[in-house]
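Key result, reporting period 2: structure in, sequence out.
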């Protein structure tokens, strides 16, 4: 029996057709992956299924029953639950309070706390989760918070679970644990719909896969009868290089030397980078792995001049750039792809051409004296749009009208075009689809071949493992591991260091 049938689903946003006559069938008790590039329509389709959006046409059937006017409330009552990429938890609340929120058992006008705790405790035991129900949710690791999200929708009686990019912030051990959870849910008869761009994960955990491209379904496969290469080609419309082919390192002179760097979070009044030291040479990529919130962001902000350094040195080609302005840092030969593209990388009301000139707007050839050269800006915008496959290739369009993936491409294009000595790439592929990720990887490797020194900070462990010549692990503001690709990367050891800062 089909748990979900979507027939002829069409959803438009003004002139954009996000879903175009989409047909998807999900069988009861299977793990069904939905994959596609940014803008393929997969998230929109799931939001139609969950009732966030109303379809313009088509049919939704849940366990054979046709549903009209789907809403989130109705979806929950039908046994549909959704775990979003960004968790919908309230950090100060206890675990049990987050799980029952909105579905609290009552005794008269009061919440029946004992019944709530008993029910949640029983559910955690059934799932095999070891979670302190009285713990403050915001203090718990990301992997535990994800389990709380799953418990929350199971508590509401979910039979169909939709998970949107569920492994984005997990360590390798947490990913393995999540996959075991999904397989156990399947054994109990639950149906799982998995939205992901990680094709190896599709192969590892799903039973069937639906591929979407530009709002349409372009392929359906039994997972055991396909391959990552075939799925990628369907998603992008061409052959895609999935495996990074990295030539031997041609390590040159030391460009960057960070010595005993200490950085404080001034709002909280605590040290978040604690005595960090490392170097980066010409022609090498040094990766930093770690769970979000362990000092990587503050380290990058200090290196790029955006955060005060308490003590320590940041030597760029021998010159100490600690506590210099961002402009001085850029002029020393540093380029920076920031992790927050909207807050730190772009001015959303500026055009693509204007954003490409940021940091260079008062220098030739972008300006003639005090007057900006608009013709040069437009021509440079067109050139970079073509080189980096920015869509639409329209330099006069404000960046707020580009998709998230294309906004990221604009930043990547600008920073590569600066031809830096030292490139800081912080989450450079965040929000990009598989075809665009391939572009970024090619440009990172090209910069490496040209002798640039590159620091790559990414939550995607597979990314730093495949691209890095050397890999540092950050935990609680310290470097707790230092690995060289020539000796091979021990993923289990790296995962333990990411989670606990030490090996047991």
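The corresponding designed sequence is given below.
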């Amino acid at each position: 029996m089909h748990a979900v049938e979507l027939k002829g689903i069409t959803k438009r946003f003004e002139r954009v057709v996000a879903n175009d006559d989409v047909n998807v069938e999900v069988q009861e008790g299977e793990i069904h992956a939905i994959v596609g590039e940014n803008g393929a329509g997969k998230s929109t389709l799931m939001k139609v299924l969950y009732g966030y959006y109303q379809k313009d046409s088509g049919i939704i059937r849940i366990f054979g029953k046709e549903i009209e006017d789907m809403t989130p409330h109705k979806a929950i009552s039908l046994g549909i639950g959704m775990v979003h990429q960004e968790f919908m938890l309230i950090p100060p609340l206890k675990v049990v309070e987050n799980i029952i929120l909105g579905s609290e058992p009552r005794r008269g006008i009061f919440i029946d706390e004992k019944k709530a705790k008993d029910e949640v405790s029983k559910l955690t035991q059934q799932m095999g989760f070891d979670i302190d129900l009285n713990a403050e949710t915001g203090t718990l690791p990301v992997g535990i918070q994800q389990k709380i999200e799953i418990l929350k929708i199971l508590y509401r009686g979910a039979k169909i679970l939709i998970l949107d990019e569920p492994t984005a912030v997990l360590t390798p051990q947490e990913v393995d644990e999540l996959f075991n959870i999904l397989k156990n849910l399947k054994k109990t008869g639950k149906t799982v719909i998995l939205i992901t761009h990680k094709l190896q994960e599709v192969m590892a955990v799903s039973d069937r896969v639906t591929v979407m491209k530009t709002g349409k379904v372009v392929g359906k496969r039994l997972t055991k009868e396909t391959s990552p290469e075939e799925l990628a080609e369907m998603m992008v419309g061409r052959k895609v290089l999935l495996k990074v082919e990295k030539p031997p390192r041609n390590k040159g002179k030391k460009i960057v030397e960070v010595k005993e760097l200490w950085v404080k979070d001034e709002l909280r009044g605590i040290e978040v980078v604690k005595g960090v030291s490392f170097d980066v040479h010409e022609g090498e990529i040094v990766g930093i792995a770690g769970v979000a919130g362990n000092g990587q962001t503050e380290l990058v902000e200090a290196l790029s001049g955006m955060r005060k350094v308490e003590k320590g040195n940041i030597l760029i080609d021998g010159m100490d750039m600690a506590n210099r302005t961002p402009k001085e840092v850029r002029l020393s030969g540093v380029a920076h792809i920031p992790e927050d593209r909207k807050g730190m990388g772009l001015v959303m009301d500026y055009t693509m051409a204007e954003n490409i000139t940021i940091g260079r707007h008062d220098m030739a050839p972008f300006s003639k004296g005090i007057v900006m050269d608009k013709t040069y800006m437009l021509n440079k915008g067109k050139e970079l749009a073509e080189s980096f496959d920015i869509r639409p290739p329209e330099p006069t369009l404000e960046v707020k009208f580009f998709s998230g993936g294309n906004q990221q491409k604009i930043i990547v294009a600008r920073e590569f075009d600066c031809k830096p000595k030292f490139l800081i790439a912080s989450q450079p592929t965040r929000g990009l689809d598989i075809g665009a990720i391939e572009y970024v990887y090619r440009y990172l490797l090209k910069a490496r071949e040209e002798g640039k020194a590159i620091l790559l900070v990414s939550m995607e462990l597979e990314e730093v493992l495949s691209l890095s010549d050397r890999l540092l692990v950050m935990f609680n503001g310290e470097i707790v591991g230092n690995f060289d690709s020539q000796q091979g990367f021990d993923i289990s050891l790296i995962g333990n260091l990411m989670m606990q800062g030490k090996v047991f």
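The chain has two domains: 2-236, 254-500. The chain has 17 helices and 24 strands. This case is discussed further under Risks and Mitigation.
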